[in-house]
Specification:
By secondary structure, the protein is an alpha/beta fold. The chain contains 17 helices and 13 strands. It is about 40% helix and about 20% strand. The longest helix has 22 residues, at about 205-230.
Length: about 450
């Protein structure tokens, strides 16, 4: 599979000044496969240590003498490590915290050596690391499930990806191409971006086989709970795993989840799921200015799931007849899709953050699905499952925050409109004037170009 992060890995390899790279991401998003493929394609030699499969090699990293570590690895693997043509890949590094610490000494003593580390539950280890974290001596990259473009490439639809990357908003997309792309978006809704699910569909064209893979992934995520949670937390996380797909797009209320569980216990379980990257907690912000993080309302958030295909599986939606099925939660799925796409966007060296805005005044409630920063400006994003939908909340936000541009994602063809209207707000009639960029779901990855 072609992954977008590979280009970033190549850039990292070719940079004169680089640090050991730690790739972070949830289980089964393709970290190991992608890094191994990158290593085989770009280095003369690849040395891979999987600390889960070969725990005996943990012993090599009980010292901070990197030359001794390298000598032991050469003897064990029978390979001479040439620091400029060899990639050292430390997989499942969370099993060996001392190896994380050793990255500092590799950077200081052997800066020419190319090292990449990865781990599925790495955030838990980093959060509880008992040793000194090599701050400033490592860099990070972030991986997610396949986004829609990567999904298209896996389906051998490269021409569509090339077309969308070069598309200019003043062009008219032919209706047959538009309909084909929407059909593929809908297919992605059910298959999602977990590499194993995409791979099995490409090989068999069977949605039943995809369901089997989804079930296996969900069970493996549950199995992992025992590695980082108490029995009570495991029980709550299992319940959350079933609840969150039903709560996408909604403000999380502890009483709606399970009022028999203390809210602080649920909060701890939610944070564990977030550290495992199974869910992302989209924080509410007052949006008083940038950075949006400074205006976050910590207690108010809405969750989205790791992958839209897994969402549909947890909801027990059968996908044998994708052409005919009508969903009651199309709006929630559309919001999951857009949120998932936004989180996957580059740059890969930093973790993308998206927010939402909520106004809870009596008789004048309003909510913006997502807020992002673009060129130090706040951009509101509205998500509509169909071609139409009210824009009242967006117009309230535009007035209150003096916004000039907004994005809407829906199933219609692209358009740009200068909106001039009026709105009654706080018993006062106010003018609304802004530019609305309306894009179909398949162009989420291009929205920043059109801004």
């Amino acid at each position: 599979m072609i992954r977008n992060i590979t280009e970033y890995l190549i850039d990292w390899k070719n940079r004169k000044h680089k640090k050991p790279l730690i790739v972070r991401g949830a289980r089964q998003v393709g970290k190991t496969y992608t890094i191994e493929q990158f290593g085989r394609d770009n280095y003369a030699k690849l040395i891979k240590i999987n600390f889960e499969e070969t725990p005996e090699l943990i012993q090599f990293f009980q010292t901070n003498d990197v030359e001794q570590i390298l000598q032991n690895l050469e003897i064990y693997f029978g390979i001479k490590i040439n620091k400029t043509i060899t990639l050292l890949f430390l997989d499942e590094i969370q099993i060996c915290p001392k190896a994380i610490v050793s990255l500092r000494y590799f950077y200081e003593k052997t800066p020419d050596l190319h090292i990449i580390a990865a781990g599925s539950l790495l955030d838990h280890t980093l959060n509880n690391l008992q040793y000194t974290m090599p701050v400033g001596r490592v860099e990070f990259a972030y991986m997610h499930p396949l986004n829609f473009y990567e999904f298209l490439l896996a389906l051998d639809e490269k021409s569509l990806v090339d077309y969308l990357k070069l598309y200019k908003i003043e062009q008219q997309i032919p209706i047959p191409i538009h309909k084909k792309l929407l059909k593929l978006v809908r297919l992605y809704f059910f298959i999602g971006g977990m590499p194993e699910a995409v791979k099995i569909f490409v090989q068999t064209n069977s949605l039943i086989d995809v369901e089997r893979v989804h079930e296996s992934i969900v069970k493996s995520l549950e199995f992992d709970f025992s590695k980082y949670g108490t029995r009570l937390q495991q029980s709550i996380m299992t319940k959350l795993l079933s609840y969150i797909p039903r709560a996408i797009g909604q403000k999380f209320k502890y009483v709606n989840f399970d009022n028999s569980i203390r809210s602080d216990a649920t909060k701890r379980a939610l944070n564990l799921l977030a550290m495992s990257r199974i869910t992302k907690l989209i924080r509410n912000t007052k949006a008083s200015g940038v950075p949006l993080e400074n205006n976050v309302v910590e207690k108010t958030f809405k969750p989205i799931f790791i992958d839209i295909g897994l969402v549909n599986h947890v909801l027990k939606l059968r996908i044998t007849d994708i052409e005919e099925i009508k969903l009651n939660n199309e709006g929630n799925l559309a919001e999951q899709f857009v949120g998932q796409e936004l989180l996957c966007l580059p740059p890969f060296f930093s973790e993308n953050e998206i927010y939402y805005w909520m106004r809870e005044k009596r008789n004048s409630e309003a909510e913006i699905d997502y807020l992002v920063q673009n060129m130090n400006k706040i951009v509101p994003i509205e998500v509509k499952s169909g071609k139409t939908g009210t824009l009242k909340s967006l117009q309230v936000f535009v007035i209150e925050k003096n916004i000039k541009k907004a994005i809407r994602f829906n199933s219609d063809i692209p358009s740009v409109a200068n909106i001039e209207t009026s709105l009654k707000l706080n018993n006062e009639k106010k003018k609304v004037n802004y530019k609305l960029i309306s894009l179909p779901f398949y162009l989420v990855s291009e929205y920043y170009r059109f801004l």
